[in-house]
Write a structure and sequence with these properties.
Blueprint lengths: L5 H26 L5 E7 L15 H8 L8 H15 L7 H16 L3 H17 L8 H21 L2 H20 L8 H16 L18 E3 L6 E3 L14 H9 L13 H11 L2 E2 L17 E2 L1 H13 L5 H13 L3 H13 L8 H19 L4 H4 L2 H28 L11 H6 L12 E7 L2 H32 L35
Helix pairs in contact: 1-18, 2-13, 3-4, 3-16, 4-5, 4-6, 5-6, 6-7, 7-8, 11-12, 12-13, 13-14
Length: 525
């Protein structure tokens, strides 16, 4: 049998392959699920911190500071620390680095126990001696920062009353904070810039207290109504422009990229370059602060606009380790939480601010403004919640707040007992017994830290996916089978006759070819 032409074999193989590809693809496309949603979960973009060495924000942090769920040192702690520092400082030269650091400890203890005049005097003397020694830059940071803090504690309330000397003291504190930022820009992870923003705002309020009715410390508008219109926390607002997006802690395009499975949505801080970190935060995290007024005649913009977690972390740190709780911080946290859809946290922040209204401003009118404003915000939130939950908001707050205060009181009482018993304050195991007998005070994070969505596959996309999943497979299988079949049909076969090899006579054998290069080769003629 003659072998078929090679082109015919190729044509038949390709025809089988294409036919199998089309048939298998059709079957795969028919069986492919159409428009079937799939759950998508992703950590929210604020899990990426501002810098590689700084902590990232969690909503539980706001819950803890508002309800005092953290360890706070009492007077006994600072008194004992001051005593130990005074004992140690006598063993060092007054102008040594160690002596300067111990002076900070003594002055902070004075400030914490209300002895501001002594604390300010100590810091001024320390700074004067450092400058006389020619110290500059980072070596002066703690003097700038602590002196500024003490001046604010001593003069801020007087400035609110309209006292000229107090106003000058607050301005001096502002200038010292600027110097501290220049000396050490990365101190406290760069959050001191927000303290400068807040002081500038308060100085402006000192000129006209009516400004305190229009914005908070970072420029979130107070003079607009925000109506919560759904249980998901989307808001209607009265802004003249559309730049202010409320109701979620992320930018709208971020959720779109997550649902599409874009590779740009990763929020793990590991391995992120600085430019990628900044770009992701800028494009993905909801912004707050420095909002435009409804009408230009109502006042100018003030504050600073940035990703919401930046001012939130500053407020939390200042509350816990700085000047402590105050209504300005509580209201500012409430406005931030309201803008990122955290209604329960916002409600609690406004409740705490209301209970500190007498510390908001010296005038009764502004204190009443704060209470009215917070109640209106709370009522707007309550309208979006079931009545059963609304009825429990204040009792839940009271219970959480009482729990936090009780924990702090017990913590301070334990520390005082340890000190009286002669225990070393600097011993790393000083509070170990207390923590062993008390459950952790910090709240656990929950689903509020995660984005939950659906990734749907369209009918066209599912059909194409099914076609390209099954088509090449069946086409390749058909190609293989057709090749094997044709090889079996058309392969060469032996003749049916059983012929034996016939040897030609020697006379008919072809002559041996002589090598012409050999000199002794015989002449074939």
């Amino acid at each position: 049998m003659r072998k078929p032409h090679v082109c015919l074999l190729i044509f038949l193989a390709l025809a089988c392959s294409v036919g199998g590809c089309i048939g298998g693809g059709y079957i795969g496309a028919t069986l492919a699920p159409s428009d079937k949603p799939r759950a998508v979960y992703a950590p929210l973009p604020h899990h990426v911190p501002l810098s590689a060495d700084s902590p990232s924000f969690r909503f539980a942090m706001v819950h803890d500071v508002i309800h005092e769920r953290y360890s706070r040192h009492g007077d006994a702690f600072y008194e004992e620390r001051e005593r130990l520092a005074r004992e140690r400082v006598t063993g060092f030269h007054p102008d040594s680095e160690t002596a300067f650091a111990l002076t900070d400890d003594i002055a902070v203890g004075r400030d914490r126990r209300g002895k501001l005049i002594e604390a300010i005097a100590m810091m001024r003397d320390k700074l004067k001696r450092q400058e006389a020694l020619g110290l500059k830059g980072k070596e002066l940071y703690s003097s700038y920062a602590n002196l500024a803090e003490f001046l604010l504690h001593g003069h801020l309330w007087g400035m609110m009353k309209g006292e000229f000397a107090a106003r000058q003291g607050v301005k001096e504190a502002r200038d010292l904070i600027r110097k501290s930022i220049e000396a050490n820009p990365k101190a406290h992870f760069g959050r001191e810039s927000w303290q400068l923003v807040a002081i500038e705002t308060l100085i402006e309020f000192g000129n006209s207290a009516e400004g305190a009715k229009k914005t908070d410390l970072i420029g979130n508008r107070l003079d607009v109504s925000i109506k919560v219109t759904s249980h998901k926390g989307t808001y209607e607002h009265l802004y003249a422009d559309t730049q202010h997006v409320m109701g979620r802690p992320y930018q709208s395009d971020w959720s779109t990229r997550v649902n599409r499975g874009s590779s740009e949505t990763g929020v793990s801080p590991d391995g992120l370059e600085e430019t990628a970190r900044i770009d992701l935060r800028e494009r993905s995290i909801a912004h707050v602060g420095r909002e435009s007024p409804v009408e230009k005649s109502h006042g100018s913009e003030r504050g600073k606009r940035a990703s919401f977690d930046e001012p939130a972390l500053w407020l939390i740190g200042e509350w816990r380790q700085g000047s402590g709780p105050n209504p300005h911080f509580a209201m500012c946290l409430g406005e931030i939480m309201l803008r990122v859809g955290q209604r329960y946290l916002a409600w609690s922040c406004f409740e705490r601010a209301t209970r500190m209204s007498e510390q908001f401003w010296p005038t009764a009118a502004l204190q009443e403004f704060l209470r009215t404003h917070c109640r209106e915000r709370q009522q707007s939130i309550e309208k979006s919640l079931p009545e059963s939950e609304t009825a429990m908001l204040r009792p839940n707050f009271d219970r959480e707040f009482a729990f936090g205060l009780k924990y702090q009181q017990e913590y301070q009482a334990f520390a005082e007992q340890q000190i009286q018993a002669g225990k070393n304050l600097n011993d790393p195991h000083f509070t170990e017994e207390f923590h062993a007998s008390h459950p952790p005070i910090a709240s656990k994070v929950g689903p509020e830290e995660w984005y939950a969505g659906e990734r749907s596959t369209s009918a066209t996309k599912a059909t194409m996916k099914g076609f390209f999943s099954w088509g090449p497979f069946t086409g390749g299988a058909c190609l293989l089978l057709s090749s094997l079949l044709m090889n079996w049909l058309f392969r060469s076969r032996p003749s049916p006759l059983n012929l034996k090899e016939i040897s030609l006579p020697k006379t008919h054998q072809p002559p041996q070819r002589l090598d012409p290069l050999r000199p002794d080769a015989a002449d074939p003629s």
